[in-house]
Amino acid sequence: MAKEKTIYTCTECGGTSPRWLGKCPHCTAWNTLIESSAENPAAGKNRYSPQFQSLAKACEVTALADIEATDMTRTPTGHEELDRVLGGGIVEGGVVLIGGDPGIGKSTLLLQALDSLQRAGLNTLYVTGEESGAQVALRSRRLGLDGSQVKVMAEIQLDKILATLEVTQPAVAVIDSIQTVYSDLLTSAPGSVAQVRECAAHLTRAAKSSGVCIVLVGHVTKDGALAGPRVLEHMVDTVLYFEGDTHSSFRLVRAIKNRFGAVNEIGVFAMTEKGLKGVSNPSAMFLSQHSEPVPGSCVMVTLEGTRPLLVEIQALVDDGGPNPRRLSVGLDRDRLAMLLAVLHRHAGVACMDQDVFVNAVGGVRISEPAADLAVMLAIASSLRGKALPKGFLAFGEVGLAGEVRPAPRGQERLKEAAKLGFSVAVVPKANAPKKPIEGLTIHAVERIEQALDLVRSLQ
Q1: Phi, psi (5° rounding) for residue 316?
Q2: E strand or H helix at 209, and its extent?
Q3: CA 192/CA 229 separation, integer angstroms
Q4: Other beta carbons less than 10 A from residue 25's beta carbon
Q5: Which of 207, 246, 251, 330 has the fewest CB neighbours in a 10 Å radius?
Q6: Cβ pair 144, 276 in contact under 8 A
Q7: What is the pLDDT of residue 56?
């Protein structure tokens, strides 16, 4: 019997190599080649059989001006936070890919959403390749979904799944997970690059031709990226990432790509005994509850998609000896080093012999430069040992020349802060509102030394 031929496939780009290499010759990624079985050349002929050709219908070439453009009809899922991330709800014929760490709550959230849609009168289907129907039923009872009429199918064969979708014609179908689905047309094992790419392509075509909204659950690698080829994210309409620590009760769902809504939108959930519940006021979980103001703490308003969030920035400055450390959690470490240099040069605050630790409370990650001013004021407050005033907040980008630059959508940030009871704000001059905001005293500054002088007068 002839020996089975093996090839090495890149998990990033899907390129192949006849032997193992440390670096992929196609996309130059390191340590991404994995061993797999070579495909049977005869199997490829069946990919163009009539059953697959019928999924892609021919279309005439039309000018953009002649095409009637209407807004996509959205169906709410019954979970406000999930609808926010999706852009308002599910879209007919849309394909959603959701990934996250094991046990983070992907299957739980989708089962809850399917039950809400089913109770709203929609036909739903849950295809599970990792659990039996009894396990899904047991989980639904644990979540309090008694009497749920969501249809469940335990299957991993692609042709049977496509046939079931055609017969039952659900409005929403969940495939949990895409890494377990396989096609007989390919000889590689389920979860391989070729299988994931091929199965996702056929499911996407089926969604576009039939109008069913398909939600694909994807595994993630140890680095947190979606497993399989990157082309998987290009094929679908929406990509969602589940984030959060399994030891914490809070979960974040972040939109990385959305053809029907805003990207970088965020939904906040709390894990309870009855499943995931939306958090309507997420700022509360990012703010520490101090009875009195403490040194080294400054509140800022950051933007997550279209939502303003209040986050507490904490700084601790301590004697560091000959080799001081600079450590940041939730913020860019290189930017922290830059801000310390600006503090020294333009404001006369020297931390050369001090350890500096900066933390964004609640596990949130802040990537926007609008946190610069809050970080610098928190560091100065910790160094002097004097707390900032009660109800104080600040935001703004700080440049290398010491100037305080405006942050985008400053009015929305200030209104959110006033709504939550904050009374004093230090903002860039360009973000100062033309009309006063009730209950909020706003101080506009142009340079970092002005901000520090102002804070000293308020303390």
Answers
A1: -130, 120
A2: helix 193-210
A3: 9
A4: 11
A5: 246
A6: no
A7: 46
Whether omega for the bond prior to residue 177 falls within 30 degrees of 0, making it cis, is yes
Look at the block and give the residue holding tokens 């972040």: 254
The CB density around residue 3, as the number of other CB atoms within 10 Å, is 5
pLDDT at 49: 47
pLDDT at residue 292 in the model: 83
pLDDT of 125 reads 96
Task: Consult the annotation and say whether 107 binds a ligand.
Answer: yes
Upper half-sphere CA count for residue 171 (Cβ side, 13 Å):
21
Dist. CA 349–CA 341, nearest whole Å = 9
Which H or E element spans position 97? strand 95-100
Q: Residue 277 belongs to what H/E stretch?
A: strand 275-278
Distance CA 366, CA 302 (A): 8
Walk along the chain (459 residues) in steps of 10 and give the mean pLDDT of each run.
70 83 89 74 49 54 85 87 91 94 91 95 94 93 91 95 95 94 86 87 94 93 74 91 77 89 83 88 74 91 84 92 89 93 93 92 86 96 93 95 94 90 93 90 95 91
Q: Does 3 carry a binding-site annotation?
A: no
Contact status, residue 275 vs residue 143, Cβ threshold 8 Å: yes
* Cβ 113 vs Cβ 79: under 8 Å: yes
Residue pointed to by tokens 């659900």: 170
Residue 102 marked as a ligand binder: yes
Residues of the chain by 3-state class (helix, strand, coil), percent to 5:
30, 25, 40
What is the C-alpha separation between 304 and 285, in angstroms, rounded? 15
Task: Please say whether the dihedral angle defined by the alpha carbons of residues 192, 193, 195 and 197, taken in this order, is positive or negative.
Answer: positive
Instruction: Centre a 10 Å sphere on the Cβ of residue 360 and count the other Cβ atoms it contains.
Output: 22
Per-residue tokens: 195: 């299988």
pLDDT of 66: 87
Say if residue 105 carries a ligand binding annotation.
yes
In terms of Cα–Cα distance, which of 97, 80, 102, 98 is closest to 89? 80
DSSP of 350-406, one letter per residue? --TTEEEEEEEGGG----SGGGHHHHHHHHHHHHHT-PPPTTEEE--EE-TTSBEE-
Question: Do 192 and 229 meet the contact criterion of CB atoms below 8 Å apart?
Answer: no
Whole-model pTM? 0.74
Q: Which two tokens stand for residue 346?
A: 């333009």
Torsion angle of C-alpha atoms 387, 389, 394, 399, degrees rounded to 10:
-50
For 155-274, strand residue ranges (E) read 172-176, 213-218, 238-243, 250-258, 266-272
- If DSSP codes are grouped into helix, strand and coil, which group holds residue 430? helix
Angstrom distances, CA of residue 422 to CA of 240, 288, 296, 310: 33, 14, 18, 10
- Does 15 show up as a binding residue in the annotation? no
